[in-house]
Amino acid sequence: MSPSDAPPNAKPKRVAVMISGRGSNLGALISASMASGYPCRIVGVVSDNADAAGLQLAADYDIDAKVVERKDHNSREAHEDAIQTIFDDWQPDIVCLAGYMRLLSGTFVARWMGSMINIHPSLLPSFTGLDTHQRVLAHQVTLHGCSVHFVTEGMDEGPLIAQAAVPVLPNDDADRLAARVLKAEHRLYPSALRLVAEGKVRITDSGTVLFRDFPEPDESAALYSHPVEDA
Ligand code: GRF
């Protein structure tokens, strides 16, 4: 069953999180999932990096965590098969990429289409890829932010679910700006995941995003404007 088929008051969706590093967005998702009424439970964390700090966070909260390093597998397919085998065991409804630094194959992406989301530190479609904060400063852009989108094959190209904007301030450097964006990420990601888990947003076969009930914008997210489908 895809998340968008979920009936109201369904039991919490099972969420797997994929990380490569620090894991602060993982922490935000764990915190959100501990609040009463939040429609998700984090059932496991996969890291492609044995040194990822986020693994300790998973351990602190007694969440199953598995390291699947690329170097231990002969091909990208074999690496992703190993991850999929873990998912077959965990049975997640939704997969959240949270600082997962590896591009996923079309096969893996197709397997999770509509159920896999990612957070990116820019107002997409501007500034895909790495070093977004440095590039924002270099372009003297005045508004920056973060985006949560469904994952499709192209890097940072999937249809948007929600975005949050922050100002670029005089005398910002990349670190100060990154910290401001990260705070917004930690509010945005749980809020966007909730929309997916409650079936309020879904990706259509043609790759556009539809909201079921247009959520009122709140402090945590400036929600992107999408067509609303009939209830
Ligand atoms: C975040 O900025 C996220 O948007 C990007 O990678 C970074 C991961 O940070 N995809 P963390 O590991 O969640 O702290």
Report what the structure shows:
The protein has a seven-stranded mixed beta sheet, sandwiched between helices. The protein has a two-stranded antiparallel sheet with strand order 8-9. With about 230 residues, it is of the alpha/beta class. Helix content is about 30%, strand content about 20%. The protein folds into two domains: about 10-110, Formyl transferase, N-terminal domain (Rossmann fold, 3-Layer(aba) Sandwich); about 120-230, Rossmann fold, CATH 3.40.50. The longest helix is centred in the C-terminal third of the chain and has 24 residues, at about 175-195. 5-O-phosphono-beta-D-ribofuranosylamine binds near residues 24, 119, 121, 146 and 182.
Concise description?
This protein is α/β, with parallel strands linked by helices.
CATH class of the largest domain: Alpha Beta
Could you report the average pLDDT, rounded to the nearest whole number?
A: 91
* Helix/strand structural class: alpha/beta
Measured between the Cα atoms of the first and last residue, the distance is 19 Å
Q: What is the CATH architecture descriptor of the largest domain?
A: 3-Layer(aba) Sandwich
Strands side by side in the biggest sheet: 3-2-1-4-5-6-7
- Percent helix range: 25-40%
The succession of helices and strands, N to C, reads EHEHEHEHEHEEHEE
Q: Helix and strand layout, with pairings?
A:
Elements: E1 13-19, H1 24-34, E2 40-47, H2 54-60, E3 65-67, H3 76-90, E4 94-97, H4 106-111, E5 116-120, H5 132-138, E6 143-150, E7 160-167, H6 174-197, E8 201-203, E9 209-211
Parallel strand pairs: 1-2, 1-4, 2-3, 4-5
Antiparallel strand pairs: 5-6, 6-7, 8-9
Helix pairs in contact: 1-6
Residues 19, 21-25, 54, 98-99, 119-121, 146, 182, 185 line the site of 5-O-phosphono-beta-D-ribofuranosylamine.
